[in-house]
C-alpha cells in the first residue's frame, strides 16, 4: 500500500540519487516516486509543476500535501530511517533547516555539479 507519493525533479542528479537510495530501503513499497518531468506526472494535474520544481512535494495516503523537508523526513521515517532527519523537524532547528533546504533547492544543479560532477540528467542519464 502506498503511504506516500513523492514528486521530485528527475533532472537533478542529487535528487535522483536520493530517490534511488530511498527506494532501495523501501522494502514495503510504501513510497511511490514520480518524476515531475515524466509522462506519469500528467496523472496529477493538481500539482503545479513550477511549484514542484521549486520545493519537493508529497502526498500522504490521505491526500494531505506535504512540502520540502517534511516530505524528506516522512519518507525516511517510512523506511525506518527517520531518526536521521528528525532533528531537522525539531522546533529549534526547523526554521534554519527549511531556509537551508530552500537555498539548496534553488541551487540544486550547481550543487549537484560540485558534488557529483554532473549538473543535469535527461532520459535517465546525467551529464556535465
From TrEMBL:
Molecular function (GO) terms listed? protein-disulfide reductase activity
Q: Name one GO biological process term.
A: cell division
Alphabetized InterPro entries for the sequence: DCC1-like (IPR007263), DCC1_Trx (IPR044691)
Q: Specify whether Cell cycle is a keyword of the entry.
A: yes
Q: Which UniProt keywords apply?
A: Cell cycle, Cell division
Q: What is this protein called?
A: Cell division inhibitor
Source organism per entry reads Vibrio sinaloensis DSM 21326
- What is the organism lineage in this UniProt record? Bacteria, Pseudomonadati, Pseudomonadota, Gammaproteobacteria, Vibrionales
Amino acid at each position: 500500500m502506498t503511504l506516500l507519493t513523492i514528486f521530485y525533479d528527475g533532472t537533478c542528479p542529487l535528487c535522483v540519487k536520493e530517490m534511488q537510495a530511498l527506494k532501495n530501503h523501501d522494502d514495503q513499497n510504501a513510497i511511490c516516486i514520480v518524476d515531475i518531468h515524466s509522462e506519469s506526472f500528467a496523472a496529477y494535474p493538481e500539482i503545479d509543476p513550477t511549484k514542484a520544481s521549486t520545493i519537493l512535494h508529497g502526498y500522504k495516503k490521505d491526500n494531505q500535501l506535504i512540502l520540502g523537508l517534511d516530505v524528506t523526513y516522512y519518507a525516511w521515517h517510512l523506511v525506518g530511517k527517520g531518526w536521521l532527519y528528525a532533528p531537522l523537524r525539531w522546533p529549534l532547528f526547523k526554521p534554519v533547516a527549511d531556509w537551508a533546504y530552500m537555498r539548496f533547492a534553488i541551487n540544486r544543479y550547481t550543487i549537484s555539479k560540485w558534488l557529483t560532477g554532473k549538473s543535469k540528467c535527461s532520459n535517465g542519464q546525467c551529464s556535465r
